[in-house]
């Protein structure tokens, strides 16, 4: 049977309903030096600030791809460097839009996401990434949850980002959790943990360090 397809924007705005009104940057391999004095709020505090024995999550922000069983697997990001958390989020979105690396493709990983440019970062405020759908690329209707999960899990792997909100045409959207129910607020890592290939994946390290802004 042929899988029905529709535009990502139309699917979320129509089939998944618009919520009530409230209230991609290309990747580069060039490394830029960040002056610690220009970064506010002690975001680059040394790792020694963490108490001995504190739990550590995966090293740095991660990208989430789909395996052959429709489970999500985390992989390190490609090399980049940014001066802000917003910049890291833009790099994450760009790399998600670019799809898995050749190595990851060869290992059987894929993506449910439309091509690069499908989402635009509006801002990060109050530890929430605000995203705007900016594409009419097609997406299989049975892949919407996976595509949403890839986005939310990847962005919330960034220290300083705990929630994701999406909007289309200036209106917030209710998008599906892994359970299939529509979210009535921002999306969180816990909303898609059941889709992880390894549900026991440790929580991220909440302290933002230099290596999170400039992963090696």
Task: Give the topology.
Blueprint: E1 5-7, H1 8-15, E2 62-66, E3 72-76, H2 85-98, H3 102-106, E4 119-125, E5 128-133, E6 138-140, H4 144-155, E7 163-168, E8 171-172, E9 187-188, H5 210-213
Parallel strand pairs: 5-7
Antiparallel strand pairs: 1-6, 2-3, 4-5, 7-8, 7-9
Helix pairs in contact: 2-4
Could you provide a short overview of the structure?
The protein is built from 5 helices and 9 strands, in the order βαββααβββαβββα. The chain has about 220 residues and is of the alpha+beta class. β2 (about 60-65) and β3 (about 70-75) form a beta hairpin.
Describe this entry's structure for a reader.
This protein is of the alpha+beta class. 20% of the residues lie in helices and 18% in strands. It contains 5 helices and 9 strands. It has helices spanning 8-15, 85-98, 102-106, 144-155, 210-213; strands spanning 5-7, 62-66, 72-76, 119-125, 128-133, 138-140, 163-168, 171-172, 187-188. Strands 4, 5, 7, 8 and 9 form a 5-stranded mixed sheet that branches. α2 (85-98) packs antiparallel against α4. The longest helix is centred in the middle third of the chain and has 14 residues, at 85-98. It is globular. The protein starts with a strand and ends with a helix.
Structural class: alpha+beta
Number of helices: 5
Order of helices and strands: EHEEHHEEEHEEEH
Strand content: 15-25%
Mean pLDDT: 74
Unreliable spans are 1-11, 13-57
Largest sheet entry: 5 strands, mixed
């Amino acid at each position: 049977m042929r899988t029905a397809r529709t535009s990502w924007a139309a699917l979320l705005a129509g089939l998944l309903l618009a919520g009530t009104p409230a209230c991609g940057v290309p990747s580069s391999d060039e490394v830029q030096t960040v002056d610690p004095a220009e970064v506010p709020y002690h975001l680059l505090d040394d790792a020694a600030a963490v108490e001995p024995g504190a739990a550590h999550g995966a090293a740095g922000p991660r990208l989430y791809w789909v395996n052959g069983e429709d489970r999500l697997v985390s992989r390190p990001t490609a090399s980049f460097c940014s001066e802000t958390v917003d910049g890291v989020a833009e790099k994450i979105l760009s790399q998600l839009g670019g799809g898995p690396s050749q190595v990851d493709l060869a290992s059987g990983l894929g993506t449910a996401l439309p091509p690069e440019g499908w989402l635009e970062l509006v801002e990060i405020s109050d530890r929430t990434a605000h995203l705007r759908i900016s594409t009419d690329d097609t997406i299989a209707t049975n892949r919407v949850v996976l595509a949403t999960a890839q986005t939310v899990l990847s962005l919330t792997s960034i220290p300083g980002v705990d929630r994701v909100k999406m909007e289309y045409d200036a209106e917030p959207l209710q998008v599906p959790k892994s359970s299939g129910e529509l979210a009535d607020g921002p999306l969180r890592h816990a909303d898609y943990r059941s889709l992880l290939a390894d549900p026991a994946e440790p929580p991220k390290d909440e302290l933002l360090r230099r290596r999170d802004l400039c992963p090696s």
